[in-house]
Amino acid sequence: MSERYQEFQSLLKSNAEAVEALLAALLSSTVQADEIARPERLLAAMRHGVLNGGKRLRPFLVIESAALFPNVERETALRIGAALECIHCYSLVHDDLPAMDDDDLRRGQPTVHIAFDEAAAILAGDSLLTLAFDIVAAPETRLPDATKTALVLALARAAGIGGMAGGQALDLAAEKQAPDEDGIVTLQAMKTGALLRFACEAGAIIAGASNDERATLRRYGETVGLAFQIADDLLDLTADAQTMGKATGKDADRGKATLVSRRGQAWAESRLQELVKEAEALLAPFSHRAGILIETAHFIANRRN
């Protein structure tokens, strides 16, 4: 095990713990300024959908992309990462609903609509989506207003009709009419890739970095986003539910087309290694500072759950 990989694993764990602690504080029963009340059952459903472990990969990418730049406070990056995780978790809560992907298991525990009910799950997702923008805009997030505006815009574009939500709509449509390969790439870039792209680009936005640096991290995010989806589709084909903490084999059961189902396992494994090399090349301008992000690309391509 390389020293850099050990450092990566240590950082992934410590950042996940920090994100979990911040999310727990943000989802406390304490009523905030201008709030009227925090309904107990709704808050419990939100906490169930968020405080359930996980690698916290998206916040990790925010924190470590921001760490490329010397002028960023870690606490600020952590808050933006927590905001992104709220959106990611809202998407999981809604995706698991019977009207969407209809899953009973998430991260090894009952999904929110199973543990509570469908109405609670819908409202928990709505509240998490709203909370994300609350976190970005709040005075505790120590950034200039113009930077907060840029983050809100980028996050909204990544999460909305032209990003994750639109990708989920295309994914549902794909169950009735299989898209071609270009359609699959577009669907996955929206549903999965858009938030990962934001996670990497956010570091440059927070730092007020140059347009070239922002574009580089955006492209890195697109590259690891594609790797994440190919690895996910590969795991859906080869892993078991206990390892994954969620149902597997569902794409095949529904006849859903993926790049892996079209091209095969050998192609997927080869393509993942190509994407790692592309990620490394993109990060070359950051030299040794990008070591952790390079290790992250390897981790995403070779993950087992």
What does this structure look like?
The structure is a single chain. The protein is globular. It has helices at residues 3-26, 40-50, 57-66, 74-95, 112-115, 118-137, 145-159, 164-174, 181-207, 211-238, 241-244, 250-253, 259-263, 265-283, 291-302; strands spanning 105-106, 109-110. It has a two-stranded antiparallel ribbon with strand order 1-2. The chain has 305 residues and is mostly helical. The protein has 15 helices and two strands.
Strand content: under 5%
Which oligomeric form is depicted? single chain
**Helix- and strand-based class?**
mainly alpha
Give helix % range. over 70%
Strand order in the largest sheet: 1-2
- The secondary-structure element order is HHHHEEHHHHHHHHHHH
The averaged pLDDT comes out at: 93
Sum up the overall morphology in one term.
globular
Number of strands: 2
Which descriptors apply to this entry?
305 residues; mainly alpha; two-stranded antiparallel ribbon; 1% strand; globular
Please outline what is shown here:
With 305 residues, the chain is mostly helical.
List the helices and strands and how they pair.
Elements: H1 3-26, H2 40-50, H3 57-66, H4 74-95, E1 105-106, E2 109-110, H5 112-115, H6 118-137, H7 145-159, H8 164-174, H9 181-207, H10 211-238, H11 241-244, H12 250-253, H13 259-263, H14 265-283, H15 291-302
